[in-house]
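Q: What does the predicted 3D structure of D-galactose/methyl-galactoside binding periplasmic protein MglB look like?
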Amino acid sequence: MKKMKSRIARICLALCLAAMMAGCAGTEKKEEKTGIKIGVAIYRGDDAFISSLCASLENAIKDKEEKLGKKVVVNIADAKNSQSSQNDQVDDFIRKGYDAICVNMVDRTVAAVIVDKAKEAGIPIIFFNREPVEEDMAIWNQTYYVGTDAREAGELEGQIVADAWKSQESRIDKNGDGKLQYVMLEGEQVHQDSLIRTEYSVKTILKEGIVTEKLASGTGNWMRSPAYELMQEWIGQYGSQIEVVLSNNDEMAMGAIEALVENGMSGGNGPIVVGIDGTEDGLEKIIKGEMEGTVMNDARGQAESILGIACACAEGKDPKQEVPELKGQYVRVPHSPVTADNVQEFIDYKNK
């Protein structure tokens, strides 16, 4: 009987030792985790600004790795403008145990579904460019947004037009009626920036005491081709009556410029064109004199904030220590006006 008890005791001791060793091995394996995995879901990869932001994000990884002393892996998934596809991509990031998830929503009004999933999985989530409604942001305190102030963008765009009118009224006011006749290229109607940029660009011009007349407006969905088609239609309808083309972004402005060039109305022969984003194409058109100005939407600054918050959260740190611009759950990266006077400065900034 004593031998049996002794044998049982030895077996129990061996099992305890094995369990302790397994526990230590699990701890060791956890401690060996030296990298950070970040999933990025974008609404569509053929959007010029989002493409620029993703490139800036990838360029910022090396500096972040050197600072942290560990590998940072960023996986970018393109939803191709499908919310259901984006939901699946987020599910995949969660299933694979990513440390942080960054989302450029297809439909910003349904972000609650993604926030709920991230909260349940305990994975911090950073939205960018397409801002969720406040109620969805409030679901979880590990939810963040990186973007800009759309009102500021609209005001700066309007100010570029107002300044041009005051200094070049005789050139811009082709019919000499003292009114600024304009057409407006708008982004997606569901995108908050489109509505606000449109409103405040015109309000700013009016505040400067300039009388305006809207000839036409249309939705180009941020894209070049639809804007080109709209501009061709407006040229056919209004021709030289168009004195200013206001565009919610540079990519649509590029479509308008293509139509103006085809109709011999570019540069000094036609209306001035103003956009928002400060894309490479936009800056190039300013250099060529085919675009009056743009408003720099700092893709690099936004990418650095996104990466900073994601890495800080992945390491269990307060993201505000990494990104001082973070106010509560939000980062608003400032805009800058760009014209022929300072365009080279922004070209140099982009090329750094």
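A (community wiki): The structure tokens above were generated from the sequence. The radius of gyration is 26 Å. The first strand starts at residue 36 and ends at 42.
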